[in-house]
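Dear colleague,

Thank you for sharing your sequence with our group. We've completed the structure prediction you requested, and as agreed, I am returning the results in plain text so they can be pasted directly into your records. Please verify that the sequence below matches your submission; if there's any discrepancy, let me know and we will rerun it promptly.
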Amino acid sequence: MTTRNKIKDTIIKYNLIGNNELVTVALSGGFDSVCLLHSLWNLGYKVQAAHLNHRLRDEADDDMEYVKHLTDKMGIELFCKKIEVGIYAKENKLSTETAGRFLRYEFFKEITDKTGGVVATAHNSNDNAESFMMHLIRGSGLAGLTGIRPKTEIDGCRVIRPLIEVERSEIEQYCLKYNLQPRLDKTNTTTDYQRNEIRHIVMPPIIERDGIKAISRACQVITPEEDFLCEYTDNLINEYGQEYGNGKAYPLKWFNALPLAIKRRVIRRTIDMTWQHPVALLHTDNVISACEKNYGGKIIQIPGKFTAEIKKGLVIIEHKD
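Please find the predicted structure tokens below.
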């Protein structure tokens, strides 16, 4: 099967693009995003491109010139923006990766608010396997082992990943075949970042054993199970939870009778459903321990200005402004 056919099959399987829907391709100028843009364009999808110059590398301006030349040649509209990601990261006390991600999606939303449609990012099956391994090494639960989903919503943008079932080697061959000459990001060759360390040290022996496909299969098994457990927990929250201040309260006897896995999920989902804030295992288990011991009046602090309090037969989870 050709790379283009594989991409089209992925789009159809996951219903990624509606009829005549506009697709904004996140175009960095690297192999993955260039392959994505060129493939979608040749498959007849309605595309435009967006490029954010992070001003982090000496080659950033050359990358921008490359994508301008490429989109001009293809007759595709391009949205470009320059922003000092390093300065933004410092001012907001963020890592450059986190700052860059936030600013990229802010830029994409600006575009899609005007033009409509979806945003396509060039995550491939190798990226998916790397994310799986990175979360596994961190000790993630099921949510972190679902991998990179074919479609999702991020910061108000509908995001699709048409390359998610295509391996990096296929992408490189595609770009070579069509003489696309993508730009090389030198930071991808270092092991300064955790993802690169996993890519260059952990992944090679896994790839040799055809592990990319095996991890993809594992993600396909885990994802529906995670989705079911999330839906099951949300239904419990809606049935047994009651509004209380700036949060929710649950009957303590009911909460204590739940299986441990569901207790943890109730706490995490209570916070994540409203405030989209992650909660570490240590903090969920601190709350569970206090509930089991029925420490009346006990207030457990949870990072992100959250508290859990045991009061009058209830466990109350609130956000403290």
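Summary note from our side: The first strand starts at residue 22 and ends at 26.

Kind regards,
the structure core
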